Amino acid sequence: MLELVTGATLAVSAGLNAYIPLLGLGLLSRFTDVVQLPAGWSWLENGWALGILGVLLLIEVLVDKVPALDTVNDVLQTVVRPASGGMVFAAGSASDTFAVPDPASFVTSAQFWPFVLGIAIALVPHLLKTIARPVLNALSAGAGAAVVSFFEDVGAMLLTVLAVIVPLVALAGVALILVLLIRRLSRGLRERAAQRAMPISPPV
C-alpha cells in the first residue's frame, strides 16, 4: 500500500505545482539511488526533459507570485496540474524507491487507472488553490500572493521528497496542507463577505 501513498502524495504535490514532482522524480532517478523509474517513465530523467521542466518551473514560480497573473495561470493550469498529477501518480507508484523497493504488480500492469486516480487527486488542491487565490489577493491588495505561493512551492518540494523516502510522513503532510488550504479559503470567504456587508459611509 505504500506505493499508493507515494503516488497519491506526488499527485497532491502536482496540484500545488505541476512541475516540481515531475522534476523531482527525474532528478532523484538520474542523480541518486533513491528512485528507480520504471521503463515507461525513464524519459523523465533525460537531460532534455529535465531542462524543459526546469524552464517551465521557473516560469510557473515567477508568474504565480504576481497578483492577477497568478489567477490567469491557475485557470491555464487546470489542465496541466491534473495531468501532471496523473503522470506522477503512475510513475511514482510504479517506481522502486527508498521506501518501496518492490511496487505492487497491479500498479505496473495497469497504468491507466493510476493515471486517472492521480488526475482526480491533483484536482483537489488545484481547485482549492484556484478558488482561494483571488479571494486572498482581494483581501491583501495582492500582497499575499508571493508569500502564499512561496509556501506552496516549499510544500510541493517537501511532499515530493518525503513521498519517496517516508510516504507515511508525507501523507500526514498532505492532510496538513489540505486542512490549511480549506481553512484559508473559508476564512477568506468570511472576511470578504464581511467587507461586502459593511455599510458605505456617505461622503462628507
Describe this structure in words.
With 204 residues, this protein is mostly helical. Helix content is 77%, strand content 2%. The protein is built from eight helices and two strands, in the order ααβααβαααα. The protein has a two-stranded antiparallel ribbon with strand order 1-2. Helix 1 runs parallel beside helix 8, helix 2 packs across helix 4 and helix 6 packs parallel to helix 8. The longest helix has 31 residues. The radius of gyration is 18 Å and the shape is elongated. The model has no long low-confidence stretch (mean pLDDT 84).
Structure, briefly:
By secondary structure, the chain is mainly α. Helices cover 77% and strands 2% of the residues.
Q: What strand order characterises the main sheet? A: 1-2
Residue runs with pLDDT of under 50 for 5 or more positions:
none
- SSE string: HHEHHEHHHH
Average of per-residue pLDDT values: 84
Shape: elongated
H/I helix tally? 8
β-strand percent reads under 5%
What is the chains' assembly state?
Answer: single chain
Kindly name the structural category. mainly alpha
First-last Cα distance: 67 Å
Gyration radius, rounded? 18 Å
The helix fraction, in percent, is over 70%
Q: Strand tally, please?
A: 2
